[in-house]
């Protein structure tokens, strides 16, 4: 019998707007660097976040979802916090209020010291590594599976704390494409005999799934509805 993932909330994902590191062509993936204000949104990224907030608001209205039901969960990095704050302002939600939640597990994938603060030109080597073995960690960094595991944990926390909400997850390129890869795979999963969220996700965290995460890439400031 097929077991599909049944979630208590509706989910949207948003990649942060164009950041100062994006403009400079730098990889900023460690928590230590990522939270620095010097790596927040560039002016163009603020505009992207504003547009994403307006689009999200439009989708909420189309679905007759009240703003009281909205929750914004975001990575603690400066570029994602900045994005979430702009979106909250568009929705007229207090950023410091209970409807906005910072979650460490939504942080950027740490690519390790060999990539940190180096050029974006190194990304193709990372993704080639991922296709070869998504369970193998980058030197001093995280594997695709590492990121998938902590994102599953974040999703479990959100599902346990909220019910019947419209949840916007504001995060980064790699984590969001990995999250989409896992969620999409749950639709085809017929092996898990459990309704348990952790068990269903664990069943699809296999090389053939995780190695394909680039298929779900988002551009900066892109809003996307996920399965729910």
From TrEMBL:
InterPro entries: His_Pase_superF_clade-1, His_PPase_superfam
CDD domains referenced in this protein's UniProt entry, alphabetically: HP_PGM_like
Pfam families, A to Z: His_Phos_1
Secretion signal span: none
Protein name as catalogued: PHOSPHOGLYCERATE MUTASE FAMILY PROTEIN
Organism: Salix koriyanagi
Taxonomic lineage: Eukaryota, Viridiplantae, Streptophyta, Embryophyta, Tracheophyta
């Amino acid at each position: 019998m097929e077991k599909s993932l049944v979630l208590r909330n509706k989910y949207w994902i948003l990649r942060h707007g164009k950041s100062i590191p994006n403009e400079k062509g730098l990889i900023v993936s460690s928590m230590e660097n990522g939270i620095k204000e010097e790596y927040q949104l560039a002016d163009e990224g603020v505009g992207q976040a504003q547009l994403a907030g307006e689009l999200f608001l439009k989708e909420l209205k189309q679905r007759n979802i009240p703003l009281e039901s909205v929750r914004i969960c975001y990575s603690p990095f400066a570029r994602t916090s900045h994005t979430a704050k702009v979106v909250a302002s568009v929705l007229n939600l207090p950023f410091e209020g209970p409807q906005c939640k910072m979650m460490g597990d939504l942080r950027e994938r740490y690519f390790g010291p060999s990539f940190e603060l180096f050029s974006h030109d190194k990304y193709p080597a990372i993704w080639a590594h991922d296709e070869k073995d998504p369970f193998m960690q980058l030197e001093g960094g995280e594997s695709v599976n590492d990121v998938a595991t902590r994102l599953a944990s974040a999703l479990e926390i959100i599902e346990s704390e909220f019910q019947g909400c419209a949840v916007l997850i504001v995060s980064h390129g790699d984590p969001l494409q990995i999250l989409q890869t896992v969620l999409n795979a749950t639709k085809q999963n017929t092996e898990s005999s459990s309704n348990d969220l952790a068990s269903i996700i664990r069943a699809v965290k296999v090389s053939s799934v995780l190695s394909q995460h680039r298929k779900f890439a988002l551009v900066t400031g892109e809003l996307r509805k996920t399965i729910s």
